[in-house]
């Protein structure tokens, strides 16, 4: 017969093993459920973004169409006036011809703006919801492991829908990259500074130090692992950082007169800043080619 003193420890070990297995299974189940919730939230944000972008595009097309119709109407009136004036006053007809040419060029510009907007809508749409969805974005990123802090200065004013989409896309891409490169535990500091006419958006993260912290190092070990030299500082200040995501953000920002600056902060992480000097009044259609 097995002594009771041996049976009890064996039973305790077996119970502990069973408990550990059940705990791991439950932990895995909860993690999968959390991942599923995050995925659904991302899908919801993406659908909201696509709807917002298409709605903004349709509104722009409608506005440009109204402007083009008005311009063509002026052309018709000017042409009728020139026809009546041609017989009695050739010089007046010549002046009218010059005015019609100017109006025709304006109408052509409006029509081409509308054409560009329609063509852009036919291409693949990259998600970028409005600023009202920023809090949802921050919450999803926090649930994924990114520690997001947000500050805002100045008086916020209403922006065109296209401008809001650009700003949101900057936040979404920057925070996504911070999580991808820095991993869970990375801190991202988001700041928006409003001026009477413009806006500056900055996103700074500590992804380099976060990676060192995750390896289990203490404070001194993290400092040693993230040490950098003056050459590293100089290289970070002078290097032009680019990539598919950053190039896309630069193009989006440029549509509204924005300038993007991105750089690695040695020993800390990554910093991105976008300045829109006149975002309040920029309509996003300047520089449309006429040829």
Question: What does the model show?
Answer:
With 291 residues, the protein is α+β, with helices and mostly antiparallel strands. The protein is 64% helix and 13% strand. The chain has 8 helices and 5 strands; from the N terminus they run H-H-H-E-H-E-E-H-H-H-H-E-E. Strands 1-2-3-5-4 form a 5-stranded mixed β-sheet.
The helix-strand sequence is HHHEHEEHHHHEE
Number of strands: 5
The best one-word shape is: elongated
* Terminal CA distance: 99 Å
Q: What is the makeup of the main sheet?
A: 5 strands, mixed
Instruction: Name the quaternary structure.
Output: single chain
| Low-confidence blocks of residues | 124-128
The portion of residues assigned to helices is 55-70%
Provide the residue-averaged pLDDT. Answer: 77
Strand content: 5-15%
The strands making up the biggest β-sheet line up spatially as 1-2-3-5-4
Rg estimate, integer Å:
29 Å
Number of helices: 8
Question: Helix/strand-derived class?
Answer: alpha+beta
């Amino acid at each position: 017969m097995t002594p009771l003193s041996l049976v009890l420890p064996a039973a305790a070990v077996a119970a502990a093993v069973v408990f550990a297995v059940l705990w791991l299974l439950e932990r895995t189940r909860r993690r999968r459920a959390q991942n599923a919730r995050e995925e659904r939230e991302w899908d919801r944000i993406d659908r909201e973004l696509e709807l917002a972008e298409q709605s903004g595009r349709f509104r722009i097309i409608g506005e440009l169409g109204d402007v083009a119709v008005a311009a063509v109407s002026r052309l018709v009136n000017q042409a009728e006036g020139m026809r009546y004036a041609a017989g009695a006053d050739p010089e007046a007809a010549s002046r009218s011809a010059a005015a019609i040419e100017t109006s025709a060029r304006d109408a052509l510009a409006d029509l081409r703006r509308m054409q560009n907007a329609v063509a852009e809508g036919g291409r693949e749409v990259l998600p970028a919801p409005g600023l009202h969805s920023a809090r949802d974005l921050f919450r999803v990123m926090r649930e994924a492991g990114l520690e997001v802090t947000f500050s805002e200065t100045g008086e916020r004013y209403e922006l065109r829908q296209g401008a809001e989409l650009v700003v949101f896309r900057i936040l979404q891409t920057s925070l996504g990259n911070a999580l991808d490169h820095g991993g869970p535990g990375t801190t991202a500091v988001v700041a928006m500074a409003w001026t009477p006419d413009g806006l500056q958006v900055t996103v700074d993260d500590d992804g380099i130090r976060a990676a060192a912290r995750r390896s289990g190092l203490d404070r001194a070990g993290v400092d040693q692992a993230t040490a950098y030299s003056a050459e590293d500082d100089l290289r970070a200040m002078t290097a032009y950082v680019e990539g598919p995501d950053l190039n896309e953000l630069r193009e989006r920002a440029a549509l509204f007169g924005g300038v993007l600056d991105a750089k690695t902060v040695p020993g800390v992480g990554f910093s991105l800043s976008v300045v829109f000097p006149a975002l309040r009044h920029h309509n996003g259609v300047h520089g449309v080619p006429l040829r």
